[in-house]
Design brief:
By secondary structure, the chain is of the alpha/beta class. It is 34% helix and 17% strand. The chain has 26 helices and 31 strands. α7 crosses α9, α7 packs antiparallel against α10 and α10 crosses α11. The N and C termini lie far apart (50 Å). The model has no long low-confidence stretch (mean pLDDT 95). The structure holds ligand MGD (2 copies), iron/sulfur cluster and molybdenum atom. Iron/sulfur cluster binds next to loops.
Length: 724
């Protein structure tokens, strides 16, 4: 029998690659890029085809599991869900709603069902102890958007398809697939800038895979981008490389920003950033004068010591130079399912409305920083976390001071994990509820269409028929929410609303909810004549997706401040400038600092159990610059002990000029020794946990976001002899 061909979108990273999936006898036989996909035009990376191996991975969980004294044993869905609901509700009845915490991990954002279901479970639990991966990720960017545009979800995206000048800080889209810049045809779009005669400039403390697409790469000292950006703005203001009249029409606070930038001349910021003053002056002029230009920054800024300040300054540079809300510049997408409105409804749109009990860290978008999770579990008193739900998360490997988190998880009264593996985190759960794998469920990128460089929409059907007696993320989450609500004696007002929602969601399912969002969205048939408007039925017929056109000006819809103008002088963020000045005085004398690293063949903590992805050279090594290696008497192949305030790891190292002097690089997501028996492939290439040495107390002050890039460390040889 011949294979049946299906088309769908890969949901592993943010790039939304269209895939052509061949299926025979309900087994995937081939996955490749879909050349007709309206967004990704055939591009795919090795992780897309690896979904076949993930689907078949014998270590992937297929049934609910309960932890017993003699290991994990299979239980029925009914038993597992009843027990989980009852035990969580019992803790809340006895100790109050905050006694149950919840961590929502990255893969939950990559499925429309998981997003809806997890929001609902969060509401049902009614706890303030909610955490998510954004506190190791985009919170500073979200915070800056809230302060500047009055809306946490108003995130500008580079219109990379039409720009003449692409200025990038701390992002590695060639490896990451692009983030808060859903790229589709990643390589094609990155090459496109230069192919059109444009210029691509990159600032990163490491020469990355993206360097190959750029005209110039400059090392920058970790954490110092805010100073560099102020240096660029200094030149723009000083040389009047902007249209003051046009700027005052759309933005407030120009003079305050100008006054601050005045203090940061290129000559002043050159030494602490490591970027020559002449380079700063030249790039400022080129950028300001380019007709269509856009500055963009990502993880290297967001998870640095000055996440909000540097994220804000990237946008400020775009706005001041007139590269905002115009083609080829920084723009707001117009997604078909506009979750911005939903986000506002579920409280995504605020910050600092409450604080964590022990350390007083602020919430962002309704979630507290995950770095405070362990202490909230360890510290007795009212509101101590005793029960915990982990949804698609592996905080032992992904949150700073993972070893402390691991101990805290092991001491909980009750933990339930919704995950496809028994890994470093989920092995501490009393119950593990595994969802169907991605190929067995429908898919729509609710979030990433709203962050994409082009307006498109695509729905994917399941390509594999799931075995009986399985559930997807949405079903598990909604059922668990229902059980928690049913068992609790006095649900909170929010819980009562959630109860009504549970009913509705259950009735509609994830796709039914999507249909509603599509119909109410900007292209929906609620607003357009029925024959023209979009709904799920029409979307289902477009196998390669629907192209809704290039990004278009959205100022009025996305700028929602009281004055209707962008705020260029947000007081909370600008109050952080004195700390930046102290940092600049001290940074050149500081010792070695650690930065992270992503590789195209991994994805955070969970793709190391796929043989085709882990084969080849060891990608978990520490990179050290030759001058540092020589000073410390270290050489390639040596094993080295890396120490920080919180812990140490022993890793293999490689000497390379690809990292800046004074900087060492270690990727996160490795450290699989503890789960070697349940994730056998990952366990055979364990690597070390970078988050055993990142610091849970080293957080950025405005949002409490983890500082993952720029962590002070020391190195020491373990066995200096190079290994054979
Ligand atoms: N040092 C350092 N730490 C970092 C980072 C860094 O750059 N440096 N990056 C941070 C960032 S940006 C992020 S987003 C976090 C990510 O860290 P986490 O939020 O912990 O997420 P992941 O490691 O991607 O995956 C977590 C879990 O999801 C499970 N999973 C995969 N697919 C599914 C699914 O469909 N359903 C369910 N229920 N589970 C699934 C996997 O088995 C895995 O256990 O890490 C952060 N940690
Ligand atoms: N293959 C793969 N793809 C992924 C992931 C993955 O783990 N693997 N994870 C996904 C997730 S969850 C996310 S959030 C995205 C992240 O997407 P990106 O942000 O594009 O990816 P990173 O590799 O974290 O890029 C950050 C860059 O910042 C640099 N950097 C570190 N410190 C500084 C600094 O102080 N200043 C400057 N200017 N640069 C600095 C680092 O060297 C690195 O090259 O990737 C997603 N895609
Ligand atoms: S780049 Fe991202 S979306 Fe595309 S195939 Fe790779 S993992 Fe999937
Ligand atoms: Mo992330």
């Amino acid at each position: 029998m011949g294979a049946t061909v299906h088309f769908r979108t890969c949901n592993v990273c943010e790039a939304m690659c269209g895939m052509r999936v061949a299926v025979e006898d309900n087994r995937v036989v081939d996955i490749r890029g879909d050349r007709d996909d309206v967004f990704s035009r055939g591009h795919i990376c090795p992780k897309g085809p690896a979904m076949r191996e993930l689907q078949e991975d014998p270590d992937r969980l297929r049934h609910p599991m309960r932890r017993t004294a003699s290991g994990f044993v299979r239980v029925s869905w009914d038993e597992a869900l009843a027990e989980a609901g009852e035990r969580l509700a019992a803790l809340q009845r006895e100790h109050g709603p905050d006694s149950v915490g919840m961590y929502l991990g990255n893969p939950a954002a990559h499925g429309h069902g998981a997003i809806l279901g997890a929001s609902l479970l969060g509401m049902a639990l009614g706890t303030k102890n909610r955490f998510d991966s954004n506190s190791q990720d985009a919170n500073p960017r979200i915070y800056a958007a809230l302060q500047m545009y009055g809306e946490a979800t108003s995130l500008t995206i580079p219109d990379i398809d039409h720009t003449d000048y692409f200025l990038v800080f701390g992002a590695n889209p060639a490896a990451s697939g692009g983030s808060i810049m859903t790229l589709g045809d990643v390589r094609g779009r990155l090459s496109g800038v230069r192919e059109r005669g444009g210029r691509f400039v990159l600032f990163d403390p490491r020469k990355t895979e993206t360097t190959g697409f750029a005209d110039e790469h400059h090392f920058i000292r970790p954490g110092s981008d805010a100073a560099l950006l102020l240096g660029l703005l200094h030149v723009v203001f000083d040389e009047k490389l902007y249209d003051a009249g046009a700027l005052s029409d759309i933005a407030d606070g120009v003079s305050e920003l100008r006054a601050i930038a005045k203090r940061f001349s290129p000559e002043r910021v050159s030494e602490p950033t490591g970027v020559p003053a002449l380079v700063i002056r030249r790039i400022a002029r080129e950028f300001a004068k380019a007709p269509r230009a856009v500055a963009y920054g990502r993880m290297g800024l967001s998870t640095s010591a000055f996440g909000p300040l540097s994220s804000y300054l990237v946008d400020a540079l775009n706005i001041v130079t007139g590269h905002f809300d115009r083609p080829g510049c920084a723009m707001f997408p117009t997604p078909a399912a506009d979750v911005v409105r939903v986000a506002r409804m579920i409280g995504m749109g605020g910050t600092g409305r409450f604080r964590s009990r022990v350390r007083g860290l602020p919430e962002v978008g309704g979630n507290l920083p995950a770095t405070t999770m362990a202490e909230e579990m360890e510290t007795p008193g009212d509101g101590q976390i005793r029960g915990f739900v982990v949804v698609a998360g592996n905080p032992v490997l992904s949150v700073p001071n993972g070893e402390r988190i691991e101990k805290a998880l092991a001491n909980l009264d009750f933990m339930v994990a919704i995950d496809i593996y028994l890994n470093e985190t989920t092995r501490h759960a009393h119950l593990v509820l595994p969802p169907r794998y991605a190929l067995e469920r429908s898919h729509y990128d609710l979030l990433f269409h709203t962050l994409a460089v082009r307006n498109t929409a695509k729905w994917s059907a399941p390509v594999i028929e799931a075995p009986p007696d399985t559930k997807d993320d949405a079903e598990i989450l909604v059922e668990l929410a229902g059980r928690v609500l049913g068992k609790r004696i006095s649900p909170s007002p929010l819980g009562a609303a959630a109860e009504r929602f549970v009913g509705l969601l259950n009735k509609l399912g994830a796709d039914g909810n999507l249909d509603l969002l599509l119909r109410m969205g900007p292209y929906g048939d609620r607003f357009l004549p029925f024959s023209k408007g979009l709904n799920l039925e029409k979307l289902k017929k477009a196998k390669h997706g629907i192209d809704l056109g290039p990004l278009r000006p959205m100022f009025r819809e996305r700028v929602r401040t009281k004055t209707g103008k962008v705020c260029l002088a947000p007081p909370e963020i600008l109050a952080d400038v004195p700390r930046l000045e102290r940092f600049l005085d001290e940074v050149t004398a500081a010792g070695l600092v650690l930065i992270g690293r992503r590789h195209m063949r991994n994805n955070n903590s969970w793709m190391h159990n796929v043989p085709s992805l882990v084969k080849g050279p060891d990608r978990s090594m520490l990179l050290v610059h030759p001058t540092d290696a020589e000073r410390l008497g270290l050489s390639s192949g040596a094993r080295v002990r890396v120490r920080s305030r919180v812990g140490e790891v022993v890793v293999g190292m490689a000497v390379t000029e690809d990292v800046m002097p004074g900087v060492v690089s270690l990727p996160h997501g490795h450290g699989h020794a503890a789960a070697a028996d349940t994730m056998r492939v990952a366990g055979s290439v364990p690597g070390a946990n970078a988050n055993a040495i990142t610091d849970d107390l080293y957080v950025e002050p405005l949002t409490g976001t983890a500082i993952l890039n720029g962590v002070p460390v020391t190195l020491e040889a373990v066995d200096a002899a190079p290994q054979a």
